[in-house]
Structure formats: structure tokens, C-alpha cells
Design a protein that fits this description.
Shape: globular
Number of helices: 17
CATH class of the largest domain: Alpha Beta
Distance between the termini: 73 Å
GO molecular function: metal ion binding; metalloendopeptidase activity
InterPro entries: EGF, Peptidase_M8
Strand order of the largest sheet: 29-28-27-24-32-30
Radius of gyration: 34 Å
CATH architecture of the largest domain: Roll
Helix content: 10-25%
Transmembrane segments: 21-38
Structural class: alpha+beta
Disulfide bonds: 640-650, 658-667
Number of strands: 49
Active site: 300
Length: 858
């Protein structure tokens, strides 16, 4: 809070004694009022800090306990969810399972998959269970009801739920009902309204392959958690008409800052959730919590739909095959700890464009690792996405980003409408370092420290303060950003990072936040105002509290320049930022750099960009610069990746409908007919290459397929007469890596030890050499009977790269008993058996006079 003191010596006009006395009294009263306001603001900030640390009675955010709820259901003897197959289209029925003599198990081919039209998801809400569980619903004040599953041996009331206990008791306890916990008619009306709006939002945001006929549920067990909900008999026998997802609703109490929770309880044959349990705490069904509840319900239903690590294993690709990888766990040396990142294609693409992270160091979007068992692993990392709706805490500022919609689309179950995404400002265009570096290395307002008492928030939309908490114990090693090990930011979800938090009345964009001193400081609050550092004060006044502060000033981006206004006078800022002065004011305003407000700002000159670019682009100099996937003068039209590469039709939703013979999100990949994969071939952009792959990914055409289990390698090659595909047969040649006896008509080799060494340079190269030895050892002789060993060109090259070797891979005949000298290697170096291995080889071969052979040592 700035305190402005009138400087009497600076005034020119003279007044009579009475007028001067009145003016002095007015100044004194004015100053006292300002000091009281400043004192009140300090107290308010102290309370805010205390509330954020201990929890406030007035709930301002929702704390998700999704994983904690799901973990309760995973206890022994409980079924987490049931699988109930649904009918989707003709290809899913029994009559289409057999084609060309092969059971396809209902999996559509490429053309069928492209022709499947997804429709807006239909969510059916069932309220039959509201208030109908005597042991779990609060019906009158003083009722003692179950929260979770209290110990069976305990008496009602013990243990008692107490979020303020040490340690807190949130679940598996007995809850003492208050008046706020009773769901009367007024609260039930609010519940129906809020959930109805949620279902409508998802209907616009997601499309799904529609269930054909009625949605059938199994009724195997109660749906959901906290006692669950028993499915109506008709849902099992008849099904639910006009529905793709059924949500069973309850109003049971919760503790702490948890407004609601939701879990999936039944899935279809592809893993998509078809039934879920949503619980909303009655004490939060109030007018004051309406906006927060709306955001909370979207968050919780996202968990049901698929934002759940337990659902990741069911995710499908465009052919409805299980995805081989959804997340990747790595040791991040920069951050100093293990992190889990989502590596799904659409998530990575939208993340790259959001952060401007196009470096190869960015491999995926990080999941939350804090917040305990209720939050960790099932939300986005708050340090990186802050107010995104799928972080571990939700508030009224939460937004749905394209990354969240992308994750649901990458599940293979949904098609996302990205126009339903909100603009996420946190981290926008900050580059790869923002995602991969510790937050104490972040630039600008994304990081603050003890020396800064106040400043501007990261998006310059508000004035803020830098909350730094002193904890009773030391923070984790990776979260120590200060010399004191127990000091850090106020949020464990955000990895204790310190950043400016907006004052409650610090908004620059809200005209209701206007304060009395604004005019004296030249400040104006409104849609095109932003926070900037300033020492400005109107001539005749001085700043009493500090010479340098922050204020809200109008800005505009025009003619490739940033302009700011004070008292109606516009001035051009230096491109790199810097001070500007204004007539009638002492001090100066510090302009931010042009790119901070203009390159990513949605505000142009007087905010005149058509339809604000529909939030699908940046507004620069009055023109929309559309994000990837959008085009048009107002970015309202969806564009397809690479315009479908001329091999498909671009639909209005921005998805490619590929022609026959092509697939992929951009129709760039040619496909082969199904006979290719049936016969062991590999489709490489439309060309069926009949080859097999070993477990390491190296391939040889017309060769063999490796089956590896620990140290055991098997040759499963049957003589391939046609030379067109790989045909499996029973294991024959290699049984154990330690004892390899090559039968007649095959070249005899024996790796003499489990450890394999790269003789080239003397370095140890176990894994790569072992793979190459497996390849070499199983190759068959030429059909003309030459005792010749052939090696894959790709395997040879891979060995050279991995082990620093220098074999000549141009000639694949590396060993031969008839060419270039007996048993000689055509590579750069000859490796011979040690005398021990020669002796052992002779014993196993049954021929004590066998010559020492050149061998790839492992």
C-alpha cells in the first residue's frame, strides 16, 4: 500500500488561515486513513499466509483426494472396477469377428476406424442414492456416520474424523454431522444444477464412439467408494438408454478442503469408463461456493473419464491396441529427484507449443509428485501448470488447458474439442528451461526472494507479495532455494517455489479493485491495464512508504511497439524495457520488455482483435496469430496437421479423415493390408518388409525371430522357402547363453563366459555385445551348404556405435570356413578364443582336435 503525503512547500497558491487550517486537517485525516488501510492490508496478508498453511474455515480451493479414495477400494477382497462389454457398431458384433479365416476380436481395420463417427458424450446422472444411506448420509444434527471404512472392531464415534488432529484423520473414521452437512431441498437443487452444467460442458468438450442401444452395466458389486452405490436392477437387465457414461451421485460429508470426489467403477471392453460414483459434500452446496464447485466437478469427472494413473494402462492407439507407453519415470539430474512424465503424442505436442519447449530435452509433461497419496501421480505438476484445473488443488481461477484435453484424446476413447480449452498463462512461451530447470532459476516474476517485499504477478495482471514460509522442519534437499533449509514457498504441490501471489485487491484488470491513491499515482485499472514497477507520484505529492513500488497502468501493442499511458498521455517504451517519464509526475515508470506483453498478449490497440482470437491465438498489433491447429482471421477455424498431406479430407473439427491406404493424425503414413502383420511382416510406410525383430529392436530381413528370457536365447527359425515372411517353429539351437552347442549344418560357436567384452579398445560393453552375439549365433547356413555365418547389417552397425568397434559392415559374411582363410573374421579385428575356451569348446563339440575359432566374445 502506497502512502502519499502532500508536500505543502511544493504548492504555489496562498490561502487564508482558515482555508490553510482546513487543508492541513484534511491532509492529516487522509494520511491516517491511508496508514489504517496499510495496517489492515498487512494483517490481511498475514492471515492469508496463515490460512494457506493451516487451512481456512472459508474454503477458497478444493483439495483432491482421488487416489486416496481409489486406494480404499483397492483393499483385499474388493474389485476396483468391473468390465462390461458394450455394443458399438457392426464391427463390434459377433457376426463380424471372423474375416478371411482370422478372428479379429472386434478390432476394426484402418478404414473402419476412420469411418467411425464419434458423437458428443452422453452423461446420464442418477440421483436415486442421495440421502438414502443411513450409515453414511447426514440426516439430522448429531448423527454419527461412516467416512470411508472405520475399523470393524471400533465403536461408533471412534476414531473421530478430525482434519486438525496431529496427524490429521480424514478417512476411515466416524463423522459428527452438523447442520451444514444435511442435504435439504435447496442444496439438492444446487447439486442438480451444478452437475447438469458439468455434463453439458463435457458434451461440448468431448466426443466418443457412441454406445449402440442401451448401456449395460454388470452390477457385480457396489459402484464407487465410501460404501458405494448399488446399481439399480434395470441397469443390469435392461440397461440405460441414450447414455455413454452413467454417474451415480451421493451427498456424503467430507473433511478438510475436499468439496467432492469421483471414481470410475465399470469399464467397457476397451477400458473406457462407463459408470462412476460422484460424491459432493452438502456443506459446499452454497451460493458462495458455486463457482468453485463448478470447477471442482469438472476436475473430478476428468478423473472418471481417464485422468487417472489406474486408467493409463487401458489407453489405446488409433487401432485400439493398448499403448506401449503412457508415462516415463526418469531421474532428473537438474531437479535432483525422480520424476514421472506423460509422453503421449498429443500431450507432448500441445505442451511444446504452450511452453515454447522445442528442445530435445523436453520429452513429456510432468505429473505431480507431492500432496501425498491423495494427489501424487494423478495430477499435473503444479510447479509447471499452477492454476490448470487438473493440478492437485482447484480454485475459482482454474482453467482447462489443451494439455488436459490432449491426455483424454490420447486415451483413444475420446475426440477433444480444443476450442473448449481456456488460455493458460503460467509458463507460456518461457522455453524448455522453464520446464526442465529448478524454479529458483526461473526468470522475471516467476521467482521472488526475501529481498523483494512486493511486485507484479507472473502475468502482470495484479500487484502481489512474495510469501515465504518458515517451516518447523527442513525441506527436502531438492526444495532448498534459500540458505535456511526450512524456508520456502507456501505450496508443497508447487515444490515450495516462491513466486508473487496477488493481493486480494491487487487486480489491475478489475475496475472494482480501484483504490483512493490510484489517481495520485497515475494508475488506472481495467481490461488493458497491467502491473509495472513505478516510482511515479503526481507533482506536489511524495511517496511516504517507499520510493519504488508497483502500479497498474494502461498498455497497448501497436506498430511493433509497447505503449503505456499515464493520465491519458501515451508513450512508447524501449523495446528491451526501461524507464519513461510523464509530465505532471515525479519519478518514472519502468516499462517491461516488448515481448512480455505484446508477443503473447491477447490485448492489442484498444483490445480490438476479432473475437479475441477465440482464445486460439495471440493478438498482436490488432491481428490474430493463430496457434497450431487453427486458422482464419479470428482463429475460429480448425486446421489439420500438414493439411492431411494430400492423402485425406480435413474435417471441421480439425481432424484428418484419411484416404484408403493412409493413416496417422496427418495421413502421412501409408498402411499395408492385414496379411503383412499376419505373416510376421513389418509395415514401413506402406511397404511390407518381411522381417523379424529381436528384443533390442535390431532386425534382419528373411532371418529369424528372437525370443529372449534373461540369458536364454532361442532360435525359432524354420526354413523359409518363400523368403517372404518369418515362420516360427520349436526352439532348436540356443538353449543357454553359457552352453551353446550348434548342431550339424550350423556353424559351431561357443561363448565361453557370461561376461562379454569388447576387445576393441578394451572397454566393457556387455549389453550391446550380448545382443550381437545372439544375432550371430542363430544365423543358418546358406542353402548350398557353405559353412558360412551371416550377420545383420543393422546389428553390425549398432554394435560398432554402441561399443566403439570398427567392423566392416558392408560385407555381411563375417565368418566363413571357405573364404579369406579358415575361420577368419572379415571385420577390422580378429578375436580368438582363449586357451581355456578352446579346451571347453573342444569338449562340448566332441572333437578334441577342433581348431581355435575366431569368435565374438561376450
Amino acid at each position: 500500500m502506497e502512502v502519499i503525503i502532500r508536500c505543502s512547500s511544493c504548492t504555489v497558491p496562498r490561502f487564508d488561515s482558515k482555508a490553510r487550517f482546513a487543508a492541513v486537517v484534511f491532509e492529516i485525516v487522509f494520511i491516517l486513513l491511508l496508514f489504517e488501510a496499510a495496517k489492515a492490508k498487512i494483517q490481511e496478508h498475514q492471515l492469508q499466509s496463515k490460512d494457506s498453511d493451516r487451512g481456512s474455515k472459508n474454503i477458497v480451493s478444493h483439495s483432491c483426494i482421488h487416489d486416496q479414495i481409489l486406494e480404499q477400494r483397492r483393499r483385499p477382497g474388493r474389485k476396483v472396477y468391473s468390465i462390461t462389454p458394450q455394443v458399438y457398431d457392426e464391427y463390434g458384433s459377433l457376426k463380424s469377428l471372423h474375416r478371411k479365416g482370422r478372428a479379429l476380436l472386434g478390432i476394426p481395420n484402418i478404414q473402419e476406424q476412420q469411418n467411425i463417427a464419434k458423437q458428443p458424450i452422453r452423461i446420464y446422472l442418477n440421483y436415486d442414492a442421495v440421502g438414502h444411506s443411513p450409515d453414511r448420509d447426514c440426516r439430522k444434527v448429531g448423527d454419527i456416520v461412516k467416512l470411508g471404512e472405520p475399523p470393524a472392531t471400533s465403536l461408533p464415534g471412534n476414531p473421530s474424523c478430525n482434519p486438525h488432529a496431529d496427524p490429521p484423520i480424514y478417512g476411515d473414521c466416524w463423522y459428527n454431522c452438523t447442520l451444514d452437512d444435511i442435504s435439504g431441498e435447496d442444496k439438492r437443487h444446487r447439486l442438480r444444477k451444478a452437475l447438469g452444467q458439468t455434463a453439458d460442458w463435457f458434451k461440448r468438450a468431448l466426443a466418443v464412439e457412441p454406445v449402440k442401444g442401451n448401456l449395460r452395466l454388470s452390477g457385480y458389486s457396489a459402484c464407487g467408494q465410501d460404501g458405494g452405490v448399488q446399481l439399480p436392477r434395470e441397469y443390469v437387465e435392461v440397461g440405460v438408454a441414450d447414455a455413454d457414461l452413467v454417474l451415480l451421485v451421493t451427498t456424503r460429508p467430507t473433511t478438510g478442503n475436499t468439496l467432492a470426489w469421483a471414481v470410475a467403477c465399470e469399464r467397457d471392453q476397451w477400458g473406457r469408463a462407463i459408470a462412476g460414483h460422484v460424491n459432493v459434500a452438502p456443506r459446499h452446496l452454497t451460493a458462495e461456493a458455486e463457482t468453485l464447485l463448478s470447477a471442482t466437478l469438472i476436475h473430478e469427472v476428468m478423473h472418471v473419464l481417464g485422468f487417472d494413473p489406474h486408467a493409463f494402462s487401458h489407453f489405446r492407439d488409433e487401432r485400439k491396441r493398448r499403448r506401449s507407453q503412457v508415462t516415463q519415470q526418469v531421474m532428473d539430474e537438474k531437479l535432483g529427484r525422480m520424476v514421472t512424465r506423460v509422453v503421449l503424442p498429443h500431450v507432448v505436442m500441445h505442451s511444446r507449443y504452450h511452453y515454447g519447449a522445442f528442445s530435445e530435452n523436453f520429452t513429456g509433461l510432468e505429473l505431480e509428485d507431492g500432496g501425498g497419496r491423495g494427489t501424487s501421480g494423478s495430477h499435473w505438476e503444479k510447479r509447471l501448470l499452477m492454476n490448470e484445473i487438473m493440478t492437485g488443488s482447484v480454485d475459482t481461477r482454474s482453467v482447462v488447458s489443451k494439455m488436459t484435453l490432449a491426455l483424454l484424446e490420447d486415451s483413444g476413447w475420446y475426440q477433444a474439442n480444443y476450442s473448449m480449452a481456456d488460455r493458460l498463462d503460467w509458463g507460456r512461451s518461457q522455453g524448455t528451461d522453464f520446464v526442465t530447470s529448478p524454479c529458483n532459476l526461473w526468470k522475471g516474476a516467476y521467482h521472488c526472494n526475501t529481498s523483494q517485499l512486493s511486485g507484479c504477478t507472473y502475468n502482470r495482471e495484479a500487484e502481489g507479495y512474495c510469501p515465504i514460509v518458515t517451516y518447523s522442519g527442513d525441506l527436502p534437499q531438492w526444495a532448498r532455494y534459500f540458505p535456511q533449509a526450512n524456508k520456502g514457498g507456501q505450496s508443497s504441490l508447487a515444490d515450495y517455489c516462491t513466486y508473487f501471489v496477488a493481493y486480494s485487491d491487487g487486480s489491475c484488470t478489475d475496475t472494482n479493485s480501484a483504490r483512493a491513491p490510484d489517481r495520485m499515482l497515475g494508475e488506472v485499472r481495467g481490461g488493458n491495464s497491467r502491473c509495472m514497477a513505478s516510482s511515479l507520484v503526481r507533482t506536489g505529492f511524495v511517496r511516504g512508504s517507499m520510493t519504488q513500488g508497483n502500479g497498474c497502468y494502461q498498455h497497448r501493442c501497436v506498430n511493433n511497439s509497447l505503449e503505456v499511458a499515464v493520465d491519458g498521455i501515451w508513450k512508447v517504451c524501449p523495446e528491451a524495457g526501461g524507464p519513461v517519464q510523464f509530465p505532471g509526475f515525479n519519478g518514472e515508470l519502468i516499462c517491461p520488455a516488448y515481448h512480455e506483453l505484446c508477443s503473447t498478449s491477447t490485448i492489442s490497440v484498444f483490445g480490438q482483435c476479432p473475437n479475441s482470437c477465440n482464445f486460439n491465438g495471440d493478438c498482436v498489433d490488432g491481428r490474430c496469430q493463430c496457434f497450431l491447429g487453427f486458422h482464419g482471421h479470428d482463429c475460429s477455424k480448425r486446421s489439420c496437421p500438414s493439411n492431411c498431406n494430400g492423402h485425406g479430407k480435413c474435417l471441421t473439427i480439425g481432424a484428418c479423415e484419411c484416404e484408403n491406404g493412409y493413416t496417422g493424425i496427418d495421413c502421412a503414413t501409408a498402411v499395408c493390408d492385414e496379411q503383412c502383420s499376419l505373416h510376421g511382416g513389418v509395415c514401413d510406410n506402406g511397404v511390407c518388409e518381411f522381417r523379424c525383430s529381436d528384443y533390442a529392436g535390431y532386425t534382419c530381413q528373411n532371418s529369424s525371430k528372437l525370443v529372449s528370457s534373461l540369458s536364454v536365447c532361442h532360435d525359432v527359425l524354420k526354413k523359409d522357402v518363400s523368403g517372404k515372411h518369418c515362420a516360427p517353429s520349436e526352439p532348436s539351437i540356443l538353449q543357454q547363453l553359457e552352453e551353446v552347442v550348434v548342431k550339424p549344418n550350423y556353424h559351431r560357436l561357443y561363448p565361453g563366459a557370461r561376461k562379454l567384452f569388447n576387445i576393441f579398445g578394451g572397454s566393457y560393453c556387455d549389453a550391446a555385445a550380448k545382443r550381437l552375439a545372439c544375432w550371430i549365433s542363430i544365423q543358418k547356413c546358406d542353402e548350398d551348404g557353405d559353412n558360412r555365418l551371416r550377420v545383420c547389417h543393422s546389428a553390425c552397425q549398432s554394435y560398432n556405435i554402441a561399443c566403439g568397434a570398427s567392423l566392416d559392415c558392408s560385407d555381411q559374411t563375417l565368418f566363413s570356413s571357405k573364404e579369406e582363410g579358415e575361420d577368419q573374421c572379415t571385420g577390422a579385428n580378429e578375436i580368438k578364443l582363449s586357451w581355456v575356451d578352446q579346451f571347453r569348446y573342444g569338449l562340448f563339440s566332441g572333437n578334441s582336435s577342433t581348431r581355435a575359432m575366431s569368435l565374438w566374445l561376450l
